[in-house]
Structure of Sialate O-acetylesterase domain-containing protein:
Amino acid sequence: MLSLVWLILLTSSNLVRTQNISHAKPKSIFILAGQSNMSGRGGVTNGTWDGIVPPQCQPNSQILRLNSELKWETAHEPLHRDIDVNKTCGIGPGMVFANSILERESGIGEIGLVPCAIGGTNISEWARGSSLYNQLVVRAQAALNHGGLIRGILWYQGESDTENREDARLYKGRLEKFFTDVRSDLKSPMLPVVQVALASGQGKYLHVVRKAQLEIDLPNVRCVDAKGLQLQPDGLHLGSAAQVRLGKMLADAFLQIMAPLPVQSSASTRFHNFFLDFLLSWFRYKS
């Protein structure tokens, strides 16, 4: 009888261990793309970053970054330091976004950020087949090499398209095609996208580009409006405090469209504990 008891205990224990392994959470991957305000210029003045990291942007062992060598490492500001290399990078919205998601959605698991933003780029430079587009797809695919799931794209771009009337007029169609092409090439036609309506622009057609961004009507695409967020003295880039606010806005929008996460039931664990208690009590009684 004792041998039978131990056999049952071993079997039930192995069952629970197998269930726990099968419910391991994959890495949740987010692509950060666009131009300088996604790359981050918070705290940068005259080409120098002040090095001040707001509390909401602090590193977390659960937040990783895919570096320029396509290797995962613990994420810390500036996230785009080895990606957007022609300009000085500072605080962007990515770390705030990731920390906010972890605080509010414990089931998200480990977060992997994939920086791809490059300052001063026009939407036409992100068209399918371009170097920027190809780099984004290569980095996104590399992020999946060790497991995980691409859960969304964060997009902040368009300042450069406010300078030329034709670029501004064509912006909506080009942006919609970009989102559609990326989803197609990543084999995720309903991939959530959270884009930012501009807070500033480099030209006189800002209102045209903003209107296009606010009128994008694709499934699982949300827009957060950066208008009114505090700009740096250059009148173009968001300051650190504004980036903190934007990161939280992006998190709010993503959580509204995020696919429900599987929740592991504790029923099997409760049954396992009850079964153990019952057998141990029975064994002590017989003894």
